[in-house]
Design a protein that fits this description.
about 240 residues; alpha+beta; 9 helices; globular; 4-stranded mixed sheet
Length: about 240
C-alpha cells in the first residue's frame, strides 16, 4: 500500500516570471524539510492572459513597452529588475529572447506529463525553455521537442496536442482558481487549509510546510505495521 502524502498544490502560469522563482524557493524549502518524501507537489494551471494570441515576432521588452505605454528603455529596466531576482535563486532570464505567448498548450502538456509521473520535469523544462531559451511554448513542434527531453514519446505528445485532450483538465484548474479567489500567481495551497500568495522567501515556505504537515500528520497517522505469521526459521533452532 502506498503511504499517504500531504498535497501541496501550486497554481502557476508558465509565462509568470515569479512562478519559476517560486519553484526554486519551494525546492530550497523542501530540501530542508525532513518529511519532504511525504509531500506530493501538484502543479495547477492558471492563465494570466486567457485568449492571448502568441506574438512570435516580438520579444518581451517590445511587448512590455507597448502594453504599458512606456519607452523600450524603461521596459528593459523593469525586465532587468526581475532578471536580478531570478539570478538570486540561480535562474537565468533572457527577456530579449522570451516572446509573448499563450500558455494553454503548455498547460495541456503539463497535465499529460502528470499522467506519466513527469509533471515536475515538465514544469522545469517549460519554464527554462520559455525564460532562458526563448522557446515558443505555444508551438506544437516546440512542445514535442520539450516533451521528448523529459522522456515523453514524441508521437504521443503530438497526438495529445493536436487533439483536445487535457483541455478540460486545464479548464478545471482555472475554475477552481476562480472559486478560491485566486487572482495572481504563484499561489501555494497546503493541504487545502493554508495558502501563500506570491513567492516568499524559502524560510516562509518551510515554516508553512512544517506547521501544515504537523496538522496533517495528526489527522493521518502512519498505520501500525502488521505481521502475519507463517512458517519460518528462528535463530538457534532446528528448521527441519
Amino acid at each position: 500500500m502506498t503511504a499517504a502524502k500531504m498535497k501541496l498544490e501550486i497554481w502557476s502560469d508558465i509565462t509568470c516570471p515569479f512562478c519559476y522563482i517560486g519553484k526554486r524557493k519551494l525546492e530550497n524549502a523542501l530540501s530542508q524539510f525532513k518529511d519532504a518524501e511525504h509531500v506530493e507537489v501538484i502543479w495547477r494551471s492558471f492563465e494570466l492572459a486567457p485568449g492571448f494570441k502568441t506574438q512570435p515576432d516580438k520579444n518581451m521588452h517590445q511587448f512590455l513597452s507597448e502594453f504599458k505605454g512606456i519607452s523600450l528603455k524603461q521596459a528593459v529596466e523593469i525586465s532587468d529588475q526581475v532578471a536580478g531576482s531570478a539570478r538570486q535563486v540561480g535562474l537565468e532570464y533572457n527577456f530579449h529572447k522570451a516572446i509573448p505567448t499563450n500558455s494553454f498548450n503548455a498547460h495541456r502538456l503539463s497535465h499529460f506529463a502528470k499522467h506519466r509521473n513527469l509533471q515536475e520535469d515538465a514544469e522545469e523544462t517549460l519554464f527554462k525553455g520559455y525564460f532562458t531559451n526563448g522557446k515558443n511554448i505555444d508551438d506544437i513542434l516546440t512542445l514535442i521537442e520539450l516533451g521528448k527531453e523529459i522522456g515523453l514519446d514524441p508521437a504521443e505528445v503530438k497526438h495529445v496536442l493536436e487533439s483536445e485532450r487535457y483541455n478540460e483538465d486545464v479548464r478545471k484548474d482555472l475554475y477552481e482558481a476562480k472559486q478560491m479567489g485566486i487572482t495572481s500567481v504563484p499561489f501555494f495551497v497546503f493541504d487545502r487549509r493554508t495558502k501563500i500568495s506570491g513567492a516568499p522567501e524559502s524560510t516562509v515556505i518551510l515554516e508553512t510546510l512544517e506547521k501544515t504537515f504537523a496538522e496533517w500528520q495528526k489527522e493521518n497517522p502512519a498505520p501500525a505495521s502488521e505481521i502475519t505469521s507463517g512458517s519460518s526459521c528462528k535463530v538457534g533452532e532446528d528448521c527441519h
